[in-house]
Amino acid sequence: MFAYFFRRLMYMILTVWILSIVTFLIIQLPAGDFVNNLASQYARSGRELDQAQLNNLRRQFGLDQPVYVQYLRWATNVLQGDFGWSFQYSQPVERVVGDRVGLTATISIATLLLVYLVAVPIGIHSATHQYSMRDYLFMFVGFLGMAMPSFLLALILMYVFLNAGMSVGGLFSPEYMREPWGLGKFIDLLKHLPLPVLIIGTAGTAGLIRIMRASLLDELGKQYVITARAKGLRETKLLFKYPVRVALNPIASTIGWELPGIVSGGVITELVLNLPTTGPMLFGALLTQDMFLASSLLLFLNILTVIGTFISDIVLVIVDPRIRFTQREA
Amino acid sequence: MSEALPVKSERPELSAEERYYLASQWQLMWQKFRRHKLAIIGGSVLVALYLAAIFADFVAPYSKEVRFEKSSYHPPTRVHLFGDEGNFVGPFVYGTTRQRDMETLQLKYEEDKAVRYPIRLFVHGESHKLLGLIETDIHLFGVEEPGGIFLFGTDSIGRDLFSRTLHGARLSLSIGLVGVALSFVIGITLGGISGYFGGAVDTFIQRVIEFLISMPTIPLWLALSAALPRDWPVARIYFGIVVILSLVGWGGLARVVRGKFLELRELDYVLAARVSGVSEWSIIRVHLMPNFASYLIVHVTLAIPEMILGETALSFLGLGLRTPAVSWGVLLEKAQNIHSVAIYWWTVIPALFVITTVMAFNFLGDGLRDAADPYKQ
Question: CA nearest B270: which of B258, B257, B260, B280?
């Protein structure tokens, strides 16, 4: 068991490493670099930068080096906790990113909790009351949730929240924006969380309800359920003791995909709501070719993704004895 | 003449049970599929949407670029059936007058009850090439100049949103098909190779797929599409977006193909067929394909809407297709601001098309899955 986890962990680190190389290369793909971008910005405001200045800037940022040298430099620095320099903000990346990483993680985990807390009970209800009015309603809402582009849902909910007189956009009220962390700020954050969490979670919830419903329906038709019922077991006990537990298996195996999905899908919602998280910052960094900032943010998102997969592996091994057995054999 | 004479069947009438046992696999699937009402509805909606997209030039009253300078942000035109006295006069629209609200500086459009423009079918309008072949100026419906019919209203520079939505359907609906076709080819080839050869090749391809799946999709899309040069022509950007969308999509398919391949190869009935001397090709065609194809069809119907949503999201953010290309995502890019959406609510109508399409594909996929499952009655 331990050896298995250790192997997964090693594999995870390897994945993150390869991912960091690939994303670094992808960020280099656009023609030109940040200095070109800067030059055209200057040109637009009527000032010219001459070639010598440009070259100077390039040398200063290390952009005159081949890509692999740039990567190696950045990677070694990252290992020492230095994520490089953000050109756009003229500050170290750590400073620019600040709270954003934590906030993204908070939103993602809150969303994950919401998704499971909502989807599992609804899925059970839908399966035990198949073809009832409520089942149809949940199915319809579920389909709608999957089909609706997240930005549209964001716009609609923003409109509703606005009309209900609630604050919309951002994660903090203006008075807490620059405050250091404290109880007041934390409560303020909690007040702002429902909107983004609801938007980001809808698609995942809709998908999970369908999985839960389908897998429980499969179980309910099995003979052991009929046997248990024939022996006079109470319905609730019968339901939760066996079929629900078995039906939770596929749900557990999706935890790993759910978290990356939330992190990745959240980017668009965060952009529309203009949240102080990593999504909008990554978007800006990609557009201005602020490559160390973009690379660091992508690295962070990759790590979250890989951790999600790792968690799902562990949960699966714990939940499903069959997997545990075959893994030990291997 | 021939249809007047019913061909008399040589065979005796079959009972329902006999028909069930004699039906081929595809017939069984079709019978099961027909019972799934939502899937039938979904399929019909999709056929209608794709037809409307193909014949957009004809169905839309205007072309995608024509501007009505006097009608920017015109709300959807109301179609009336009854005149002022409540008498039925057939569909018509009123002319409109516009005024600027001096307080909000917003344009206000009022119906001018004095002028009526009946809606006519097959009217002459701008000329276009139907299917790129037939030069014609006939449109499905329209009103006479100077009247205008804007079923979904107009955008900021007075272009008819209904026409633009139909034209946008071409890119939005085709991007899913082309993208899935591309990831289909990659997925089947690599999945097949992986399942067929096994061993080191299999391990390598599986690792690559795991690697691809563990990448966060949307940030990856963002990064890749930010890399598309801004000055590329529309067609090339379109292709670039398709490639980006399918780069991420093929992994799942390759896994399904490989898994199925491995699973089916070992099944008893395949062994039985082989022992009975059936050729490899016949085994693949008769015994494996129906099992296999159904899975692929289901996978494809569920992958297309994902790509459509992906394109919409990318274009909405300004990283996908860009003007002058028209797609649903490009149309929605204008609807970024919550305050402008609150006033010009009709600018989000294209989103309804996205939702309808995605739901229709999902229903269709569900129906196909049920129909393809041999153990489901």
Answer: B280
Going by C-alpha positions, the residue among A165, A171, A139 that lies closest to residue A269 is A171
Q: Please indicate, yes or no, whether the overall pTM of this predicted structure exceeds 0.90.
A: no
Q: Are A244 and A124 in contact (CB under 8 A)?
A: yes
Q: How far apart are CA A168 and CA B316, in angstroms?
A: 20
Q: How many CB atoms lie within 10 A of CB B253?
A: 25
Identify whether the C-beta of residue A242 lies closer than 8 Å to the C-beta of residue A288.
no
Tens of pLDDT, residue by residue over B164-208, are 888 888 888 898 889 888 888 888 788 777 776 777 888 888 888
CB A40 within 8 A of CB A292: no
Cβ A278 vs Cβ A101: under 8 Å: yes
Closest to A143 (Cβ–Cβ): which among B222, B354, B359?
B359
Contact A118, A207 (CB under 8 A): no
Contacts of B317 in chain A (CB under 8 A): 268, 271, 283
Q: Cα–Cα distance between A215 and A248 in angstroms, integer?
A: 8
Beta bridge partners of A93: none
CB of B345 within 8 A of CB of B155?
no
Query: What ipTM was predicted for this assembly?
Result: 0.77
DSSP 3-state assignment of A168? coil
Dump pLDDT digits (tens) for A233-292: 888 888 888 888 888 877 776 776 677 778 888 888 888 888 888 888 888 888 887 888
Whether B355 and A151 lie within 8 Å, measured CB to CB: no
Nearest by CB: B219 against A29, A267, A306? A267
Distances (CA, A) of B217 to A12, A115, A263, A302: 18, 19, 9, 10
For B361, name the nearest residue in chain A, comparing CA atoms only. Answer: A147
Q: How distant is the Cα of B228 from the closest Cα of chain A, in angstroms?
A: 7
| B366 close to B46: Cβ distance less than 8 angstroms | no
Give the DSSP H/E element, type plus range, for residue A86. strand A85-86
Position B141, amino acid: F
Residue of B216, B336, B342 lying closest to A159 (CB–CB)? B342
In chain B, which residue's Cα lies nearest the Cα of A271? B317
Give yes or no for a contact between B313 and A279, defined as CB atoms under 8 angstroms apart: no
Q: Taking the CA atoms of B199, B200, B204 and B207 in sequence, report the sign of the dihedral they define.
A: positive
Three-state SS sequence of chain B: CHHHCCCCCCCCCCCHHHHHHHCCHHHHHHHHHHHCHHHHHHHHHHHHHHHHHHCHHHHCCCCCCCECCCCCCCCCCCCEEECCCCCEEEEEEEEEEEEECCCCCCEEEEEEEEEEEECEEEEEEEEEEECCCEEEEEEEEECCCCCCCCCCCECCCCEEHHHHHHHHHHHHHHHHHHHHHHHHHHHHHHHHHHHHHCHHHHHHHHHHHHHHHCCCHHHHHHHHHHCCCCCCCHHHHHHHHHHHHHHHHHHHHHHHHHHHHHHHHCCHHHHHHHHCCCCHHHHHHHHHHHHHHHHHHHHHHHHHHHHHHHHHHHHHCCCCCCCCCCCHHHHHHCCCCHHHHHHCHHHHHHHHHHHHHHHHHHHHHHHHHHHHCCCCC
Quote the tokens at residue A127.
């399966």
Nearest to B288 by CA among B269, B307, B306, B304: B269
Instruction: Report d(CA B297, CA B201) in Å as an integer.
Output: 26
Mean pLDDT for all residues in chain B: 79
Identify the CA nearest to A114 among candidates A203, A186, A184, A183.
A203
Model pLDDT for residues B270-318, shown as the tens digit of each residue = 888 888 888 877 777 777 766 666 677 777 887 888 888 888 888 888 8
Residue A208's Cβ-side half-sphere holds a number of Cα atoms within 13 Å equal to 30
Cβ atoms of A242 and A224 closer than 8 Å: yes
Asked whether the bond before B324 is cis by omega within 30 degrees of 0, the reply is yes
Please, which residues bridge with residue B98 across strands?
B109
